Amino acid sequence: MAYKVLNNISVKDTSSSKLAAIKTDMLVLIINKGTKNDSSFKELDAISTKYLSKTIASHLKDAGSSIILPKMNGIAAENILLVKGYEKDTPMHKWLSMYASIAKKGNQLGAKDLAVMCGDVSPNDKDEFWLIEMVAKTIESNVYIFSETKNKTVKKPSVKKLTIITSGLSSANLSKAKLAAKKGYAIGEGVNTAKYLGDLPANHCTPKIIEKKVKAMTKDFPKLKVKSFNEKDMEKLGMGSFLSVSRGSIEPARMMVIEYKGAKPSEKPIALVGKGVTFDTGGVSIKPSPAMDEMKWDMCGAATVFGVMSTLARMNANINVVGVMACAENMCSSTATKPGDVVTSMSGQTIEILNTDAEGRLILADALTYVGKYKPSYVIDMATLTGAVVIALGRHASGVMANDQYLADMIVSAGEESGDRAWQLPLWDEHQSCTKTRYADLANIGGGREAGTIHAAAFLSKFTNDYKWAHIDIAATASYSTPVKGGTGRPVPLISELLLNKKLK
User: Fold this and answer.
1) Is residue 373 annotated as part of the catalytic site, yes or no?
2) Domains of the chain with CATH codes
3) Is 503 tagged catalytic?
4) What would the pLDDT profile of 233-264 be if each residue is shown by its tens digit?
5) Which run of H or E residues covers position 382?
6) Dihedral sign, CA of 136, 150, 384, 247?
7) 356/338 Cα distance (integer angstroms)
8) Average of per-residue pLDDT across 336-365
9) Given 361, 421, 462, 490, which residue is catalytic?
10) What is the spatial distance between Cα 44 and Cα 49, in angstroms, rounded to a whole number?
11) pLDDT tens-digit series, residues 181-198
12) Are 141 and 194 in contact (CB under 8 A)?
């Protein structure tokens, strides 16, 4: 079940054709200092009898500002969107926001297709191919509109085609540009796949429903191999920690393992593990009612795995990856796990559950133990794990903690490259004291209000001694509450960048 919005993304070089002849519902021109010297723009401006340049001078004062012009004689485009572009030293998040806004304007206008001339200015240290990839990724992931559970008020994306316009590229560079657009398109599709799964209401996205969607994914991508584990299977594996979370729910837990083999069989896989709590009441340690509806996004770690695996398959990536989606519903009932209960994890370590709302780490503990069987080169888990990370980093960056500095560095680097930023927090030996308890090998909470995000990672580290591992806390970045509630699809861009560019050696 891949979820892409656009039917097609293409790259067109105007060296062999005229900008005025491009038939599109919305022609987007990014205006920067070099635009007036671009031959394609000069020709278009001449046809408009200098109306374009006059409008730019009078209306586009601030970077990021825009104006839509209706159809003009001699120009095939139905509408022209003029956007004042940013300069090289402008922070990347503004570039991403600009193209996200363009995608949304396309839907608002009811445009079926967009043609975008990006111009020749890119952020510092980024080239035109990075720009093309970013445009494809950002447009694809922002024409997305969730409509699955609407009926009479349904509104679907109108935009179905994107043409990225370049100028003066050699044959070799045009091929590179097309590959960059393909990569961006695939990552954007992965982002939408993750957003779609996260945006589904919890009653439309139980562990069993996710299992069906993951199995259906193999129809789109036969290279993906899916294994599914039910509660009896997990009981045989000794996953007492994982199963303690689903005890209070009528919905049974599921663990899906997706294997993608694109490299030599001898190459060790990279393992991705995603927390997939399809709804989190907190269990017996019940959450307060306000904003509890947002707990449907507590499965965005698993959704990220789902999105990344679709991206890898779409790109036929030269890499081996194992993705684990660990899914359960955390409910409060007479059968639910109680504070003070002790369970045995797959690793053999016993855990005293002092807070049933610290359930994500209980699921991940067993999933992280399980992936050790693949002898992975690296393991990365992604989870909406702690509210504390929102306090620590705000909504702009995911939190990273690791037992391997090179892995942490590469994750942060991939975040900077993709615009899906992450920031490393320490994971020192001093933090390990938070897991101590008199009644089991480990406690699932500790340390009071201090360093909640780090203490959660300290607990997980007890299950990752056999390999190089990083934990990414995405509680602040995987969804947003304002101005409109919705999933973001993060950190699909970061993880895709990390894997597709073979940053991990």
Assistant:
1) no
2) 8-195 (3.40.220.10), 200-213+249-329+339-500 (3.40.630.10)
3) no
4) 999 999 999 999 999 999 999 999 999 999 99
5) strand 378-383
6) negative
7) 7
8) 98
9) 361
10) 9
11) 999 999 999 999 999 999
12) no
